[in-house]
Design a protein that fits this description.
Elements (H helix, E strand, L loop, with lengths): L19 H77 L9 H14 L6 H14 L5 H22 L4 H17 L6 H6 L5 H11 L8 H11 L9 H32 L2 H8 L8
């Protein structure tokens, strides 16, 4: 039982015991005490709710950090898958392009562009050095044809255009550079060229067609069905790539890891939705009104 004590001073002999005035004062005191108690209990309840909401938000922040880490790992796995696909394209092209005419492969065209750069005598200038570094860097990449062509346009062709303007090179030199850059773009498609593929007799036509379709696809996200097809083909005895077993094992591990990370990301999102509802933020911000009625 809670007792509320309210002390009121009156002038002497102004009211009497058990009079109407004392009854009103007694009733008023009980009402005020009840209201104060109700307000105090409400404040304590609201504080407990806010503490709980704050704990839930802190938990959500921790889960959000975990989710961000998960997403970054997912991006890393996708990058590793793309690198493995690039390695497979390199293995394939080393086989099918062995008999291609001189001057048509990516390596040969880059070598020719470097020779043109050297012939200007400006290869040691800042722009010349950058151009040489970019061209050599391109040899280390193995991008799908469309992405590779865009890379050539943005990184090599634009720099050559600036170089030609800066050093005021003649029209004949400009034509030679343009021809080489055009050859460089076309070289990116040689590994899927129907004429070249048909002349390669190292494996059945059906396997060649499916293999080329897969490894030259511009993959934008992790696709389990796509990876399954690649892994299955890598296990085919007629596909004679030098390091196919290594690539097959790597892709199997990356696929399993990607699946695990994907499930973790999905489960974390589900927990976040369940733990945090719309009222928690309102409660912490004080937007939930006090209702004392």
């Amino acid at each position: 039982m809670v007792v509320a004590v309210i002390k009121i001073h009156f002038r002497a002999n102004t009211i009497k015991t058990n009079s109407a005035e004392t009854k009103i004062i007694s009733k008023l005191s009980r009402i005020l005490g009840t209201e104060l108690l109700s307000y105090r209990l409400h404040e304590q309840s609201l504080k407990a709710m806010r503490d709980l909401a704050r704990d839930k938000l802190n938990s959500c922040n921790i889960l959000s950090d975990s989710l961000r880490n998960t997403i970054s790992k997912s991006g890393l796995i996708f990058s590793l898958i793309k690198q493995e696909l690039g390695f497979l394209r390199e293995q394939w092209e080393s086989m099918v392009l062995a008999g291609v005419d001189a001057g048509r492969t990516k390596q040969q065209v880059i070598s020719a562009l470097n020779e043109l750069l050297m012939s200007t005598g400006n290869q040691q200038a800042p722009m010349g050095q950058t151009l040489r570094e970019v061209q050599d860097r391109f040899l280390e990449l193995s991008l799908p044809p469309e992405r590779g062509e865009n890379w050539v346009r943005m990184q090599i062709e634009e720099r050559w255009n600036q170089f030609l303007v800066l050093y005021q090179l003649d029209g004949h030199f400009k034509e030679e550079v343009a021809k080489k850059i055009s050859l460089l773009k076309r070289s990116l498609y040689l590994g899927k060229d129907p004429e070249i593929i048909s002349s390669f007799n190292g494996m059945p036509e059906e396997i060649k067609r499916e293999w080329v379709e897969l490894i030259y696809r511009n993959v934008e996200s992790i696709d389990e069905d796509f990876l399954d097809r690649i892994i299955q083909l890598l296990g085919h005895k007629e596909l004679r790539l030098p390091y196919k077993e290594k690539s097959r094992k790597s892709l199997m591990k990356l696929k399993a890891l990607a699946k695990t990370i994907g499930e973790l990301e999905e489960n974390t999102n589900l927990v976040l939705r369940r733990v945090l509802n719309g009222n928690d933020k309102k409660l912490l911000s004080g937007k939930i009104p006090l209702n004392l009625s």
